[in-house]
Each structure stands twice: as structure tokens, then as C-alpha cells.
Amino acid sequence: MVVDGRTEFVGSDARSAESAVRDAVRQPKAAVHITTGEAAADIEIDPLPAGRVHKAGVFVAYAADTGTQDVLRGENKGRHLRHVSIVKELKQIGTLDDRVPFKTRIPLESGARLIVFVQEAGNGPVWGAALMPSGHDAGR
Predict the structure, then answer these.
(1) Tell me, what's the pLDDT at 140?
(2) Cβ neighbours for 88, distance < 8 A, ≥ 6 positions apart
(3) What span, in angstroms and rounded, lies between the C-alpha atoms of 91 and 135?
(4) What distance in Å separates the CA atoms of residue 63 and residue 46, rounded to the nearest whole number?
(5) CA dihedral (35, 36, 37, 43) positive or negative
(6) Which are the contacts of 7, defined by CB distance < 8 A and separation ≥ 6?
(7) How far is 56 from 22, CA to CA, in rounded Å?
(8) Residue 52 pLDDT > 60, yes or no?
(9) CA of 80: how far to CAs of 65, 67, 73, 94, in Å?
(10) In the chain, what are the domains?
């Protein structure tokens, strides 16, 4: 499990998970806002926290809610697996700095979750994130 792109541990370690989430909540963030319309979403992100980092990438992921797979080989051979939040497309849509907010409009994909996040280069820390579930309401 990885929390905020900063802390990693075995996902079954409940104590480490609680501690990492508690620490992540206390870290400064760049607020990410998603407002949806009929076929597009407006993305607005506050500048990065002053003095912490000077530049980070803005990423968008479109994800399916669920999916299944029949495993033909390997350790799970013969099993029917169920997956959740399957990323179908991931792309960088811009950069954010510590001085100017980021604003853009992107298309929505029917039936997909929209995930927007801000992350430092090189798999660095995550500075903000937001999710718009599938089946969103216009104007949310």
C-alpha cells in the first residue's frame, strides 16, 4: 500500500495504514475541484503549498467501476477475479506550480470515474486528488 506517494508498506499492516493516513491528513495539500456538466468537467486546482515544491504534474485517470477476469495460468489459475476502479486511461494534462492556480476543461467519458491528482515528477509525493464517481450529476 502507498499513501500520498510518500509512505509504503504491506497493505495488511493496519497499524502502518492508520499511521500513514493520519500523517497524510496533516500534510499541506493543493485543493482539487471538479465541477461537471453534460459532457465535460471543469478542473480547478489551487497552487502548490508555498515552500514545499515548485512544480508538479496534473494527471487525469478515467476508470471503470468494476470488471472480472477468468484466470487461465499462474497462481490464480481457474479463479474468477473481480476488480474495482480499473484505470482505462491515464494522462498528464498539465503542470502546477506554487504561484498560479490551474484551470482547464476536459471531456467526460460515459460510465467512467474521473480521477484528478497532482504529483511530483519521478513518482514523487501526491499533493492533491479528487474523484468524480461514475453516474455523476451535472453541475456537481
Answers:
(1) 40
(2) 62, 63, 64, 109, 112
(3) 22
(4) 24
(5) positive
(6) 16, 20, 23, 24
(7) 23
(8) yes
(9) 17, 11, 12, 38
(10) 29-132 (2.60.40)
Q: Are 124 and 132 in contact (CB under 8 A)?
A: no
pLDDT the model gives residue 111: 86
Residue 86: which residues within 8 A CB-CB, separation 6 or more? 63, 64, 66, 67
Q: Is the pTM of this model over 0.85?
A: no
The DSSP code sequence of the chain is -EETTTEE--TT-HHHHHHHHHHHHHS----EEEEE-SSEEEEEEPPPPTTT-SEEEEEEEEEEEEEEEE--SSTTTT-EEEEEEEEEEEEEEEEEESSS-EEEEEE--TT-EEEEEEE-TTT--EEEEEEE-TTPPTT-
Instruction: Summarize the confidence of residues 31-43 as an average pLDDT.
Output: 93
